[in-house]
Design goal:
Elements (H helix, E strand, L loop, with lengths): L4 E3 L5 E3 L4 E7 L11 E6 L4 H14 L3 E4 L5 E3 L4 E7 L6 E3 L5 E5 L4 H10 L15 H7 L2 E2 L2 E2 H4 E7 L5 E4 L19 E8 L6 H18 L19 H7 L6 E2 L2 E3 L7 E3 L5 H19 L8 E3 L4
Parallel strand pairs: 4-7, 5-7, 6-18
Antiparallel strand pairs: 1-2, 2-3, 3-4, 8-9, 9-14, 10-11, 12-13, 12-14, 15-16, 16-17
The structure holds flavin-adenine dinucleotide.
Flavin-adenine dinucleotide binds next to strand 5, helix 3, strand 10 and strand 14.
Length: 309
Amino acid sequence: MAANSTQLKTQLVRLDSDLEITPNASLAKLTTFKVGGRAQWLALPKHPDQLKDAVAWGNQQGHPITVLGAGSNLLVSDRGLPGLIICTRALRHSEFDATTGRVVATAGEPWSSLAWKAARNGLQGFEWTIGIPGTVGGAVVMNAGAHGRETADILVETEVLDLDGTLQVLKPDDLDYRYRTSNLQGSDCIVTSATFQLSPGHRSDDVKAATADDLKQRRTTQPYHLPNCGSVFRNPKPYSAGQLIEQAGLKGYQMGEAQISTLHANFIVNLGGAKADDVLALIRHAQAVIFERNGVELETEVKLVGLFE
Ligand SMILES: Cc1cc2nc3c(=O)[nH]c(=O)nc-3n(C[C@H](O)[C@H](O)[C@H](O)COP(=O)(O)OP(=O)(O)OC[C@H]3O[C@@H](n4cnc5c(N)ncnc54)[C@H](O)[C@@H]3O)c2cc1C
């Protein structure tokens, strides 16, 4: 679709597909951490044509393009992001086949919501996704996982759009899946949808009960009551990042309004007015302390986007 645009007085841009591209939009609102500056331009496509249109417009304007799902694994710089930010969270749709166990979902479908829908259809295999506040696209790219299960285990294929506007279908073997990452990370491909294979024919009530147990366990061990980005550090095998940080006495340690959670030491929470710079200072402090005490280099799982320091 041609990306002809109309400039309105507000500088907001409206494309042929009726997609609005908003200048100077808050990114803090689009992340679970609730920190970060502004997007030079923000697009929230609601259907695939709008997504293509956004990419074409970004290319025409020569803007770098950054993709955001639910922003639940991101630390966005206080200085904001240049270029076009495409947030996929409005691309929401999923279909479940209770007989075959096949599930097809679009990029913005909330990952966690699939768990309840699968349970209603008597499908096993999505229980562990409950409580992970990302999107399907983010899970496919990050290889989201929990309790020894990960996205790569259940992915059949994913459709991606490249920056030339070409769609292609990729299989898990194409994606070089590893611990919490894939070769889609940092690539020019935008995940548009994914197909998963679950196990059919289970009692819906049993799957619901297992899902509810997983959720309860998360809610009691992780700080869901405050904005955060999930695990800040990867577990440096054979250690647990959270245990190392807790043993170093850093639970509750605070910089500005960013605090190492008192509930789970691998989480940093935003107590209200945290800045991305506060969070990064806390990350650097924890890394220095753990290196000094244990000789272990903690690597971040959260992705830093934009300019820092
Ligand atoms: C309370 C809490 C608990 C969490 N628990 C877990 C857990 O148990 N296990 C786990 O793995 N993670 C966990 N996370 C982290 C996070 O939810 C996952 O990494 C999730 O998969 C990120 O998805 P997202 O849509 O938010 O991606 P974002 O954070 O928006 O983006 C992450 C990366 O994926 C890219 N991306 C996103 N969507 C697309 C797309 N459509 N196409 C191409 N690239 C895309 C982005 O560019 C970025 O590089 C947790 C987070 C929180 C806040």
